Every structure is written in C-alpha cells, then in structure tokens.
Amino acid sequence: MSSDSELRDLYQEVILDHNKRPRNFRVMEDANHRADGHNPLCGDRVTVFVRLAGDRIEDVSFQGSGCAISKASASLMTDSVKGQSLGDVDTLFQGFQLMVTSAPDTDVETDSLGKLAVLAGVREFPSRVKCASLAWHALRAALKDSSQVAAIVSTE
After folding, report:
1. DSSP strand E in the chain: where?
2. Which one, 33, 113, 144, 146, has least CB within 10 Å?
3. How many helices (H) does the chain have, and how many strands (E)?
4. pTM for this structure?
5. Under DSSP, is residue 44 helix (H, G, I), strand (E, B) or coil?
6. Model confidence band, residue 107 (pLDDT cutoffs 50, 70, 90)
C-alpha cells in the first residue's frame, strides 16, 4: 500500500469516527462567547460555544448539522483548541486555513497541526473546503464577540 493510499484511508477513518462520535458535541450553558455559522451553499450549520478564562479557552463545544466533513472538522477543532491561548488558536487557524486551501500538490507543513492534519485531504475537493472551515470561522467570530452570524460564502 502506498503512503498516499494509507493517508487517504486514515483521512476517511478519522472523518467517519469524528462524524459518528463527535467530541464536545453539546450546548454549553455557561459559555461566555458563541457564534453561529452557516454555509448557504450546502446547508451546513454550526453553533460554537466558548468559555474563555482570560486569554485561554477553558472549554469549547459545538452543536449543529451538516456533512461528515463539517461535523468531523468541528469535533477535531474543539479537541485541538481546548486549553489553548488565543494566540495559539490564531496560529492554529492560520495553519489550518493554509493547509486546506493550498493546491493539492503543494507541500504544506502539517506537523504543528496534530490530528487536524488528517483534513489535508479536503484540499483535493475544493467544494468541501468550506465544509471543513465552517466551524473555524464560527470560532473566530465567537472569539471576536461578534454578534453577527458567521457565514461562509467564499474562502477567498
């Protein structure tokens, strides 16, 4: 089995696992930040709940409906940002966005992304990039105390 084939299998396995058993999938009653995300192109919807303590994400969760990639990405995101500083979360967001929006043949550093690296396969399907990014944009809106709904219409 080639390494590309192994990566594709891992990608599918992780996506299916996080879609079937999403981590942090709950309404957080004591959240002090939240934002809604909606992708009108496919109908994915997500609400991200955050409890900030100073500049650190003490807890994070999400609720919503959408495709397997959208739900798995939100699940992986919440696992990755919990306990992180806002600066670290911004760095993670930038790295994630670069990874999923780069051309498939581009060599992108993914070591710093941890488990999020399995979503690199999304870049082979440009129409799915918005699915993978929705929760991230909702998280950023929540952290900015935006009362507006975060909506992904374009990744440009």
Report:
1. 33-38, 45-53, 56-65, 150-151
2. 144
3. 4, 4
4. 0.87
5. coil
6. confident
